Amino acid sequence: MVSMVIYFHYLLKFDLPTSSNTLTNFLGSVCLLSLLGGFISDTYLNRLYTILIFGSLEVIGLSMVTIQAYSKDLRPDITCEKSCIKGGIALMFYGSLSILAIGTGGVKGALPALGADQFDSKDPKGAKQLGSYFNWYMLSTTFGAMIGVSFVVWVSINKDWYWGFFMGTMAAIVGFIAIALGKPFYHYPPLRSSPLLRIAQVIVVAFKNRRLILPENPVELFEMNDKDKYQYDEKLPHTNQFRLLDKAAIVPLETFPQPWKVCTVTQVEEVKVLTRMLPILASTIIMNTCLAQLQTFSVLQGVFMDQHIFGKKFPPASIPIIPLVFMTFLIPIYEFVVVPFALKITGHPSGITQLQRVGVGLILSIISMGVAGIIEVKRRDQSIKEPFNPISLFWLSFQYGIFGLADMFTIVGLMEFFYKEAPSGMKSLATSFAWLSLSFGYFLSSAFVDIMNAVTKKIAPSKKGWIEGDDLNESNLNLFYWFLAVLSTLNFVVYLLCASWYKYKEDTAESETEQK
């Protein structure tokens, strides 16, 4: 998907900013729609059926993209220079991307949780295996992406783009058949009532009871003990954060209270858990905004560089393989070397906590932005000085290698964090929060480019935006990277405050036991 920025630019005749924004908006939509898949698999369908239904939409979307890439009638005329996507071409283009985004997003929302459901996180062995699962999930995704940005991209550029999209379509079909074959072996958690409904109920009842006085002893708050009805519920201990929500669990005078008059302590704590997650989610958005820009603009940088590495031509669209190669080696090293070593020191099943892992990723993302700015200065200076002797594409491996490390720490850490900390009936929805963070990052990255161009056009002596036009040599992409590095540093400070304030479910349970 990342390499599609070149498809947009050269075949569909978008300019560079529009190509970048179209791609980031598409990827942002994919990640945002993972919430839909997570919500449905928690409430209405089991994880497998959700994956297969949305997977069918993904295959349809890929097929439509393939058809448009194949048919000359569905592509802009080769002589067109501006505003080439309109009429039936625009309908096919945006329709195929929309269906593809819905299908891919729905799969993303249910697939990680389906694998994680097979482990018992309450068992020490299961908790360790759960942490390993997310590492192997990331490694498997990395292997698939490596094939996509190397062999498939090579076919797309050297043969035709429709062959690349066709290969993606066939791979998706094979993948969904493979996951369907595992149906007899999967463990499915029971479906529960709508998480959105339970959240709304707590907010409404707490608002209704806002004038009531909370009891001094939390034991006096309402908690259902009907084991038959709530045998699958995870009973959460009471916490003192967000005490205002506790008013939803004040016991009413009625002997048999109605659902919309009182909530259980567990139900209130579910909302508290999600509320505690929100600052963590918000503080990772800036990092994902920066990484989204690094992904897209690094591909465009490669177009203006010497594409020969070790005597062989290396297509710019395959540049994303650099962090993937790093991750392929680093994930097993992290799993077999770093985690056991850290386990001996910390005693934590995953070596370090999930939030510590995300913090490492944030630091690495700051470094990658700074390095990217330095590499861009070197690339631009050489292109201006000696236009026919550009620097090697290999220089991008530095920023992309650090980016790969940041991605490995952050994405896996967020997925495991949201899955383990989520209430029992919201696992898929909460795991999708990791993709939600990426989604806002992609959408904001599009806005960043537009806003940055508008602001710098007014204040720059040249009266030109930092990233404007089709020639990167006339842009100031390095300043844009450094601006993102400064922004990421400020964001890291905010993250540290949020992470230190957060209380893990295990910590609150231990605190409750000590109090008793």
UniProtKB/TrEMBL annotation:
TM stretches of this protein: 23-41, 48-71, 91-114, 134-155, 161-182, 280-301, 321-343, 355-375, 395-417, 429-449, 479-498
Membrane topology: Multi-pass membrane protein
Claim: Transmembrane helix is one of the keywords in the record: yes
Pfam families: PTR2
Family (UniProt): Belongs to the major facilitator superfamily. Proton-dependent oligopeptide transporter (POT/PTR) (TC 2.A.17) family.
Protein origin, superkingdom: Eukaryota
Protein's name according to its UniProt entry: Major facilitator superfamily (MFS) profile domain-containing protein
Keyword set includes Nucleotide-binding: no
A cellular component annotation (GO) from this entry: membrane
Organism: Gossypium barbadense
A single GO molecular function term of this UniProt record: transmembrane transporter activity
Subcellular location: Membrane
Keywords from the named record: Membrane, Transmembrane, Transmembrane helix
